Amino acid sequence: MNILNENKLAVLLSGSMWNNIKVLDETGSTNDYIKTGAEANSVVFARVQTAGRGRRGRTWISEAEGNIYMSVLLEPDFEPEKMPLIGFAAAVAIAETVEKCFGINCGIKWPNDIVAEGKKLCGILCEAVQKDGKYRCICGIGINLEKSPLDTEIPAISVKELCGREYDINEFAALLLKNIEFEYNNIDETIEKYRKYCVTTGKEIKIISDTEEIIAKAVGISENGNLIAGLDGKEISVNSGEVSVRGIYGYC
Ligand code: BTN
User: Fold this and answer.
1) 53, 70, 126, 147: residue to mutate for ligand 1 pocket, most atoms within 8 A of CB
2) CB-side exposure of 108: number of CA atoms within 13 Å?
3) How are strands ordered across the β-sheet holding 234-238?
4) Which atom of ligand 1 is the closest one to the Cα of 62?
């Protein structure tokens, strides 16, 4: 049966940094679940979420079984300023894993939506918390493997719609976690890899904040993951926590 299985995952991930791998039938949000008391390097998957959350207060529709809804809890020993890089590292790891397992060409729409054929395949929600004076990062990942949500404002697509290849969901999830581990341990190289995947750079974009919308041209990604945009002959640096971005001719 192609469903997530704790024992299979534990075997596939033995020797990796990941411990406490849990698979829940259902939870509100895996990010909320893992926030309460889990150890560093824990992982939780849910087959279904009843209150999945997206970036900027959006809902992440999570009723389709066979999709990935997962969170990892990290307690990095690097400087807190580098914490935002974890989302970029996860995005690179996901794009690489989806390409390797399914042969699908992926891009990353800044900051960390994985896209294929101009539609969203995966979203990442990173949240920072503190425990005993240490910074922790909860990185939540939703991947449309089987089904993309309908009726969303953002055009979405699933792996199943893109490719008919048979796969084992446990093998996919284990490779993904191994690739996240690699990127996390090589966080200083993440942005260089990220830039190669980023489909936002070079495009005319709409930068949407709580108070305004600005049309600008995306010209690059800085070392800390900010989007550099050209506006009225100047360059501005945009932080992913504060805005969302759309292409002016479509989602990407
Ligand atoms: C986004 O693109 O807006 C981010 C979506 C993140 C969804 C995942 S699913 C697992 C984890 N739990 C949540 O409630 N959200 C993240």
Assistant:
1) 53
2) 28
3) 234-238, 227-231, 213-221, 204-208, 244-247
4) 9
Q: Is 156 exposed, middle or buried (0-12, 13-18, 19+ CB in 10 A)?
A: buried
Ligand 1 lined by 110 (C-beta under 6 Å): no
Q: Is the Cβ atom of 112 under 6 angstroms away from ligand 1?
A: no
Ligand 1 touching residue 240 (CB < 6 A): no
Q: How far apart are CA 103 and CA 83, in angstroms?
A: 30
CA of 106 to the centre of ligand 1 (A): 19
Long-range pairs for 186-190: beta carbons < 8 A, 24 or more residues apart: 187/76, 187/78, 187/82, 187/85, 187/86, 187/89, 190/85, 190/88, 190/89, 190/92
Please indicate whether residue 148, judged by its CB atom, sits closer than 6 Å to ligand 1.
no
Using CA atoms, how far apart are residues 114 and 74, in angstroms rounded to an integer?
A: 21
Model pLDDT for residues 86-126, shown as the tens digit of each residue: 999 999 999 999 999 999 999 999 999 999 999 999 999 99
Degrees, nearest 5: CA angle 178-180-182: 70
Q: What residue owns the CA closest to ligand 1's atom 11?
A: 140
Tell me the whole-structure pTM to 2 decimals: 0.97
Query: Ligand 1 pocket, 87 CB below 6 A?
Result: no
